[in-house]
C-alpha cells in the first residue's frame, strides 16, 4: 500500500502552492458551468471591478438578461469558425458598440497607473475534480477571470502511475468535442504531469493527439538531455507552480507567446487549398531563451552580441518570430525603448513567409513587418531601415549593405537576428553573395563563413546587437558571438542540443542505420598511380571520370532502387521518401537517366524520381541536348517541393540543392554519392531527422563515398552522446538474445504462431485477437517481475531490435528463427507501449509484413561514434614545429611507413617541412590570398600552391616529396599541420 504520496495529496499540494505563493483563488467544482466552460461568478466580478462604467451602460440595455447575454455572446465569439478563446482574451469583445476587455496585460512601462491597477485585478483561480461531461472528470482546471484556460491530468509516480497514463487519458478517454476541450474555444493547453515530467498538447484529437515535452532539460549547456533535474528539497516539476503558473508568466504567455498558426496545403487530387489551424504554445527551451535574452538586453542594451545554439527540431522559426516581436517593444530599466528596428536575415524566402505569419499571428498590426523579397533592391532596404517599419526581414544577399547602413545610422539602434546561414543552392543567390563580398571566383559553400567574415571586417557596431541562431556553430561563429565562461572558453548564450532534441523525440538519430560502401566501381589503380598525375587538377579529373562512369552509376542505381523498394518504401504507411545526394549537376542528370532506364527495364510502376539542380547544362558526350531541372521534371523549379510531397514521387536526386533548409518529414532514406565534410555533413544528413507523427519513423543512410569516422567526427561537436553502440556482430546479437531468453517471458511456440499470422495474406479480426493474446501473455509474464527488472527486459528488447536492424543493413547476416523473434519482439514492444509515450495508437496500424533482410556482397566499414561535447576554439601557436606538431607528425610518419613499407624518420620529415615552408612563404599569390581571405578560404590557395612548392624542392628531397605529390591524403595530413601558421605569417607580412 502506498504511504508516500497519493495522487489526491499531490493535487492538493499544487493547489496549496497556487493559493499561497501565486494568489490563486481555490473554487469549488460546483462553480463550473460546463456548458460554456466558465466560472460565471468570477467572470462578472472581474468585469464589474475593472470596467464598471461599461457594465452599467450594458445593464441599462439588457437589464436582468445581461449575464446570460454576455455569457452567450462570449461563447459565440469563442466558438465561431474564425473566433477563438485566445482572440477574445487578447483583443476583448465588442457588444452594442461597447468594448469589454477579458484580461489586462502588463504594460510595457510604469507610466499608466490605471492599466497597472487593472493588471493587478486579473483573477486567477483553480478547481479540482470538475466534471467536463457526465463521463469526464478532470483533475485540475486553471481559470483566468472565470474563463477556463488550462487543464491538468496529474499522476503520482509513487502511486505507480506516470505522465504516460495521463497522456493515455487525454487520448482515449477525453472527447475533443466536449466544451472544455473544444479546439480554439476550450482550454488553450492541456498538461499531462507527474512528479518528474510534464507533457502538453493544444489540440485533442483522439488517438492521434500529439504531445510535446514541456521539461526544462536535465543537465546544463551542451550536456543537457531530456527530462528534468532531481532536487533534494522539491519535486522535479516544481517549476510549473514556481514559474509557469505565476500570474505574470500566464499573462505573458497569452499576450506575447501563444498564437494561432494557419498552414495551407494543396490537395493533390482536387487541387484545392486546404487550411489547417493549430495553437502554438512555446516549448520550455523557447520560452527560456526569449526570457533570458530579453533580460540581458534590458540590462546591457546594445552592448552585446548573442549566439543561440539550437538544434534542428527546436522550433527555430517561432523562436525567431517571438524574439523579433518582443524586441520591438522592449524597454530598458529606465522605461526607454531599446531598439528602433529589428532586422531578420535569412536566405530562405519560405522562412520569411513563415516568420511573417507567425509575427502577424502574435499581433495584428499593419506595417509591423516588411519582407524585402527579390523584387526589392538596396535602395528599398535603405528606405526601410530609415523608416518606421519595426521588423524588416531580408535575404542574405543584402547583408553587406545592412552592415554599412546601420553603421551610418548612429542615431538609431538595431537588433539584427541572423537565421542559420544555410546555402540551399549554388546558383544565382550564392553568386550574388560572393560578388557582393568581393570574393572573386571563390566558391563559398557556407554562408555562415561569409557572415562571420563580413562582421569581423566591420567590427561590432555600438548601436547594433546581433542575435545569431545556429545548430552548428563554427569556431569563427563562437569567436564573434560567443560569451566567455568562467574557464575562459567562448560558449553560446543559450543551448538546446541535438542530444536533447533526439531524446525528447523532436528529431531522429540519423546515424542509427548508417551503411558505408567502399565503392561499386573499382578505381583503375594503374591510372591513379601514373606518375603524370602529380597535380590535384589531374586527380580531380580522374575522380570525376569514375564518378560519371555509366557502369558505376547503373550499379549504384540498382542498389538504391532495390534497397528503397524492399527496406523503406512501406514505411510511414507507404508514404516514405528518399533523397540521393549526387556530386555534381552532371551526376544528377546521369543518375536520373539511369534511374528511368532501370525502372523501365524492371517494369516498376510504384517508384518515380525527381531531379534538382540549378541552371542549364550539357553532357560531355551529348552537346546537342540542354538539360534543366524544369525540363526533366516537367514543371517549374518553384513547384518541386509541392510535387515531391505528393504520393506520385518517392525519390529526389539533388546536386547542391535541398541539402540544407529543406523540411520534408517523409524523408526516411538518403543515398550519398558526394564527399561531405564538417557542418555540411551534419546539415545534409539532418534532412532525415524530422519526425512524422503518428508514424514511428526510422531512417537509413547508404553512403558510397564517405568514411563513417569522418561523418561521426563531423557530428561530434554538435552532439553530446555516442549515437551508435560498439561494432554490432552476430555474436553480440546472440548474446542479447540469450539475456532476453533467460527471463523466460517469450514462448517459442507463441513466436512461431504469431509469425504464421503476420506473414499470412489476410489477417482476420480473429487473427488479431490471437496476436493480442500472444502479446498480452508475454506482457503479463514481464509484469510478474519487479519494476526494475521490467525496465531491464524492455531495454534489452529495444537494444535487440535496434542492433538487429542495424546488423541487417551492414551485413549478409541471415537467421530465420532469430528474425521471427525480432518480428515478435517488435510488435510486443508496440503493445507494451500502448499506455506509454506514443500510447493510444491502435494495433491495426502496426500490423504489417516486414522483412528487412538484404544480402550485400560489398565491404562495409563500422566505427564507434565518440561525441565531443565541448566546443573548443583553435588557439594560435608559435610559428615553428612545436612539440605537439612534432608528435602529430611522428604519428603520421609512422602511419606512412606502415602503409607504404617505407622507413622515413622524423628528421627527414622536419627538414622537408621547413623546406616547403620557406618556399611557400615567398609566394606572392599566397600572400595576397592570406590578406584577403579567412584561414578557411586561404586553405584552397595553400593546397593548390603546395604541388608547385614540392616540384620546386624535388631535387633536394626527391623520395619524400615524390610520395607527397602522388598521395593527396598523406600530403594534406603532413602539410595541413602548418596551414594556420603560414596564414598568420603571410597576413602580417
From TrEMBL:
Pfam families: HSDR_N (PF04313), SWI2_SNF2 (PF18766), T1R_D3-like (PF22679). The keyword Hydrolase applies. One of its GO terms (molecular function) is DNA binding. InterPro entries: Helicase_ATP-bd, HsdR_RecA-like_helicase_dom_2, P-loop_NTPase, Restrct_endonuc_type1_HsdR_N, SWI2_SNF2. The keyword RNA-binding does not apply. Keywords: Endonuclease, Hydrolase, Nuclease. Residues 278-501 form the Helicase ATP-binding domain. One of its GO terms (biological process) is DNA restriction-modification system. PANTHER family: HELICASE SUPERFAMILY 1 AND 2 DOMAIN-CONTAINING PROTEIN (PTHR42927). This is Type I restriction endonuclease subunit R.
Amino acid at each position: 500500500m502506498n504511504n508516500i504520496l497519493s495522487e489526491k495529496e499531490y493535487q492538493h499540494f499544487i493547489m496549496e502552492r497556487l493559493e499561497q505563493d501565486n494568489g490563486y483563488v481555490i473554487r469549488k467544482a460546483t462553480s463550473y458551468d460546463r456548458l460554456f466552460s466558465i466560472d460565471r461568478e468570477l467572470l462578472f466580478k472581474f468585469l464589474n471591478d475593472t470596467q464598471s462604467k461599461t457594465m452599467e451602460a450594458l445593464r441599462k440595455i439588457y437589464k436582468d438578461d445581461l449575464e446570460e447575454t454576455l455569457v452567450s455572446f462570449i461563447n459565440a465569439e469563442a466558438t465561431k469558425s474564425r473566433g477563438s478563446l485566445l482572440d477574445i482574451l487578447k483583443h476583448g469583445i465588442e457588444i452594442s458598440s461597447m468594448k469589454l476587455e477579458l484580461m489586462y496585460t502588463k504594460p510595457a512601462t510604469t507610466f499608466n497607473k490605471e492599466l497597472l491597477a487593472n493588471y493587478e485585478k486579473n483573477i486567477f483561480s483553480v478547481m479540482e475534480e470538475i466534471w467536463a461531461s457526465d463521463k469526464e472528470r478532470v483533475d485540475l482546471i486553471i481559470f483566468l477571470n472565470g474563463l477556463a484556460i488550462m487543464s491538468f491530468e496529474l499522476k503520482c509516480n509513487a502511486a505507480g502511475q506516470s505522465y504516460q497514463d495521463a497522456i493515455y487519458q487525454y487520448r482515449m478517454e477525453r472527447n475533443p468535442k466536449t466544451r472544455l476541450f473544444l479546439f480554439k474555444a476550450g482550454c488553450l493547453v492541456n498538461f499531462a504531469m507527474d512528479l518528474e515530467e510534464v507533457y502538453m498538447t493544444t489540440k485533442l484529437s483522439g488517438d492521434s493527439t500529439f504531445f510535446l515535452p514541456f521539461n526544462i532539460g536535465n543537465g546544463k549547456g551542451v550536456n543537457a538531455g531530456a527530462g528534468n533535474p532531481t532536487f533534494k528539497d522539491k519535486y522535479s516539476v516544481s517549476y510549473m507552480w514556481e514559474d509557469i503558473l505565476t500570474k505574470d508568466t500566464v499573462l505573458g504567455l497569452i499576450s506575447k507567446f501563444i498564437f494561432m498558426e494557419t498552414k495551407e496545403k494543396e490537395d493533390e487530387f482536387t487541387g484545392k487549398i486546404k487550411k489547417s489551424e493549430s495553437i502554438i504554445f512555446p516549448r520550455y527551451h523557447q520560452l527560456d531563451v526569449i526570457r533570458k535574452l530579453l533580460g540581458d538586453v534590458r540590462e546591457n542594451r546594445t552592448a552585446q552580441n548573442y549566439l543561440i545554439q539550437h538544434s534542428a527540431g527546436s522550433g527555430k522559426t517561432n523562436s525567431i518570430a517571438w524574439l523579433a516581436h518582443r524586441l520591438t517593444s522592449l524597454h530598458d530599466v529606465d522605461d526607454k525603448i531599446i531598439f528602433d528596428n529589428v532586422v531578420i536575415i535569412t536566405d530562405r524566402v519560405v522562412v520569411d513567409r513563415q516568420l511573417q505569419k507567425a509575427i502577424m499571428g502574435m499581433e495584428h498590426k499593419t506595417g509591423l513587418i516588411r519582407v524585402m523579397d527579390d523584387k526589392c533592391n538596396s535602395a528599398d532596404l535603405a528606405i526601410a531601415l530609415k523608416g518606421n517599419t519595426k521588423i524588416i526581414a531580408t535575404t542574405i544577399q543584402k547583408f553587406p549593405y545592412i552592415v554599412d547602413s546601420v553603421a551610418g545610422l548612429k542615431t538609431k539602434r538595431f537588433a539584427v537576428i541572423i537565421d542559420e546561414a544555410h546555402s540551399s543552392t549554388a546558383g544565382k543567390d550564392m553568386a550574388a553573395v560572393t560578388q557582393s563580398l568581393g570574393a572573386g571566383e571563390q566558391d563559398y559553400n557556407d554562408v555562415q563563413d561569409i557572415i562571420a567574415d563580413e562582421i569581423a571586417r566591420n567590427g561590432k557596431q555600438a548601436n547594433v546587437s546581433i542575435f545569431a541562431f545556429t545548430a552548428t556553430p563554427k569556431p569563427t561563429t563562437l569567436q564573434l558571438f560567443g560569451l566567455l565562461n568562467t574557464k575562459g572558453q567562448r560558449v553560446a548564450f543559450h543551448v538546446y542540443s541535438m542530444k536533447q532534441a533526439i531524446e525528447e523525440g523532436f528529431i531522429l538519430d540519423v546515424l542509427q542505420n548508417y551503411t558505408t560502401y567502399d565503392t561499386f566501381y573499382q578505381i583503375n589503380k594503374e591510372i591513379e598511380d601514373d606518375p603524370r598525375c602529380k597535380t590535384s587538377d589531374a586527380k580531380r579529373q580522374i575522380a570525376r571520370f569514375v564518378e560519371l562512369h555509366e557502369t558505376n552509376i547503373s550499379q549504384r542505381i540498382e542498389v538504391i532502387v532495390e534497397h528503397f523498394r524492399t527496406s523503406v518504401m512501406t514505411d510511414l504507411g507507404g508514404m516514405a521518401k528518399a533523397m540521393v545526394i549526387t556530386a555534381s549537376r552532371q551526376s544528377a542528370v546521369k543518375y536520373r537517366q539511369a534511374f528511368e532506364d532501370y525502372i523501365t527495364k524492371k517494369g516498376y510502376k510504384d517508384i518515380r524520381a525527381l531531379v534538382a539542380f540549378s541552371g542549364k547544362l550539357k553532357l560531355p558526350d551529348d552537346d546537342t541536348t540542354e538539360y534543366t531541372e524544369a525540363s526533366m521534371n516537367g514543371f517549374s523549379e518553384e513547384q518541386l517541393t509541392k510535387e515531391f510531397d505528393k504520393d506520385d514521387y518517392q525519390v529526389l536526386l539533388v546536386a547542391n540543392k535541398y541539402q540544407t533548409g529543406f523540411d520534408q518529414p517523409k524523408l526516411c532514406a538518403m543515398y550519398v554519392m558526394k564527399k561531405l565534410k564538417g557542418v555540411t555533413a551534419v546539415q545534409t544528413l539532418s534532412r532525415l531527422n524530422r519526425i512524422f507523427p503518428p508514424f514511428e519513423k526510422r531512417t537509413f543512410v547508404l553512403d558510397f563515398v564517405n568514411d563513417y569516422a569522418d561523418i561521426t567526427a563531423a557530428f561530434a561537436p554538435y552532439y553530446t552522446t555516442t549515437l551508435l553502440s560498439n561494432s554490432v556482430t552476430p555474436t553480440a546479437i546472440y548474446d542479447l538474445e540469450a539475456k532476453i531468453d533467460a527471463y523466460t517471458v517469450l514462448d517459442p511456440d507463441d513466436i512461431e504462431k504469431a509469425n504464421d499470422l503476420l506473414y499470412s495474406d489476410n489477417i482476420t479480426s480473429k487473427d488479431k485477437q490471437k496476436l493480442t493474446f500472444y502479446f498480452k501473455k508475454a506482457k503479463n509474464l514481464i509484469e510478474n517481475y519487479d519494476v526494475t527488472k521490467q525496465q531491464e527486459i524492455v531495454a534489452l528488447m529495444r537494444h535487440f531490435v535496434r542492433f538487429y536492424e542495424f546488423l541487417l543493413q551492414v551485413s549478409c547476416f541471415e537467421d530465420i528463427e532469430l528474425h521471427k523473434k525480432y518480428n515478435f519482439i517488435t510488435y510486443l514492444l508496440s503493445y507494451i507501449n500502448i499506455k506509454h509515450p506514443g500510447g493510444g495508437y491502435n494495433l491495426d496500424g502496426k500490423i504489417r509484413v516486414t522483412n528487412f533482410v538484404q544480402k550485400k556482397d560489398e565491404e562495409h566499414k563500422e566505427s564507434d561514434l565518440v561525441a565531443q561535447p565541448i566546443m573548443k576554439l583553435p588557439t594560435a601557436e608559435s610559428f615553428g614545429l612545436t612539440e605537439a606538431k612534432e608528435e602529430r607528425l611522428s604519428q603520421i610518419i609512422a602511419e606512412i611507413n606502415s602503409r607504404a613499407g617505407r622507413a622515413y624518420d622524423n628528421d627527414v620529415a622536419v627538414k622537408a617541412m621547413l623546406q616547403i615552408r620557406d618556399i611557400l612563404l615567398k609566394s606572392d599569390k599566397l600572400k595576397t590570398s592570406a590578406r584577403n581571405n579567412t584561414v578557411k578560404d586561404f586553405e584552397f590557395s595553400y593546397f593548390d600552391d603546395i604541388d608547385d612548392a614540392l616540384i620546386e624542392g624535388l631535387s633536394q628531397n626527391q623520395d619524400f616529396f615524390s610520395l607527397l605529390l602522388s598521395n593527396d591524403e598523406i600530403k594534406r595530413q603532413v602539410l595541413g599541420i602548418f596551414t594556420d601558421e603560414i596564414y598568420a605569417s603571410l597576413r602580417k607580412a
